[in-house]
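pasting for ref. prot 1 ->
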Amino acid sequence: MALILVLYYSVHGSTAAMARQVVRGIEGVDGAESRLRTVPAVSARSEATEPPIPGHGPPYAQLADLSECDGLILGSPTRFGNMASAMKYFLDGTGSEWLSGALSGKPAGVFTSTSSLHGGQESTLLSMMIPLLHHGMLVVGLPYTHSELMSTRSGGTPYGASHLSGLDQDLELTREECALCRSLGRRVAEVAVRLRSVESGV
């Protein structure tokens, strides 16, 4: 089975909801399975620590998850047009995986949530792609063959799935946003399965 790691950070729940839709897309692909993980918040207090297991939701990601996966899908809320510091902090600690090439040649995708429609969705997705490219990953987007990109009035980009959560974080995922999240998961999973079959000579 091709293992796809869905790794996200979420504060108000919107990015977590997207991650669950991405997982649905992965689980619909024959020969693929998902692993859902999150990252802890970054604190300004140097002595602050998080418990090793979060109080709710999926476990925190370990570096071993990166080595074990056959594909990676990152999700983060937007922070001034960039990924959240918690996700950046985790990625900054993957130097050993970069040196060993643990992620090189594996497919990857990205998704994000913003409170305003033009709050930097696309720049956030691009910012998450940069470390993935440094790792040698094969970035998978969402082509316009997905009709939801043409009909959406909220989130959705060719760079990856996105969601408009509203200023009060009270907007649920729309039909189009859900479909695009699932499509992203499915596309990365399909590429991973194909790559595994080529490597195994099937």
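and prot 2 ->
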Amino acid sequence: MNVRCRHLFFIAVLICLTLAGFFLSLKTGPVKTPSGEIFSLIFHGRSDFSDIILNLRLTRALLAYLTGASLALSGAILQGYFRNPMADPFVLGASSGASLGAVLSLELGLSASLPGLSAQGLMALASSLLLVSLVYMISRRRRFETQESLLLTGIAAGALASALTSFLLFRRADAYEQAVFWLLGSFALADWSQVKLLLLALLPAAAVALFLAREMNLLSLGDETARSLGCPVNSVRKIFLFLATMLAAFSVSVAGIIGFVGLIVPHAVRLISGADHRRLFLSSALAGGFFLLISDLIARTALSPSELPVGVVTAAFGAPFFIYLLNRSRRS
């Protein structure tokens, strides 16, 4: 089977698995929901459990799926941007900046919010975007800007933001319990406004990324080669960096910090769909959505009636798989 056929088959399988994942998510919860009630709601628009299914379980499942798709697409973009398979959505400090903003909102007792964003989420979004912007501006001050300087500046800024976050949590031990689920990721407070917000961020970002996928293929050959083939390297790099940052920042602002999705999903997809970003971007988004949908289902059922932070589940799956990928690449 050639790469194109394998890619199409993979997309079809992903869609089927995702539909099954949504069905399980709608069916599973503290209140037992017969399968017939879900079908009745789908085909007839009515069910005795419609409020639970639509306003609790469906919103949560959709938010998990959209967050996973956003993180995976962001990771695929940044791995191509840096030509580094170790890059992930948080490599430039987006997660550390968001953590600092969320904990700072607890420290200051902020209550202002916007549709889809709590005070914590709003501060997380703003501080995440601010930190990445500072990282970009600092790296540009070098005489010779390189992707390596941007990467190293992001790592340093992220470490500083993490240190400040730890300091604030140390000063306010009473805020730790309130912050921990957000710092490890959770969809427990999902609502329709968050779903709409993330959808408005993901759809245009995905459309632009797919439109510029050919340029990303050229960037993977090196900047000089890309320029010789007619690619406006500087402009394209800025657009891709903006898209990846926005996807990561909006994901963190609604769901907290969820690791490994943007790191391992593009890796795994690349093994099936190949390195062509015209296929990789779409496949990564679909696979990331499915992965986080299932991870959230496990998070809320594994220790029922208690609930795990979804970041714990993604790390439990992601870390061993990432080690496997590293060993596989070394053997090849």
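The first helix runs from residue 3 to 27.
The mean pLDDT is 86.
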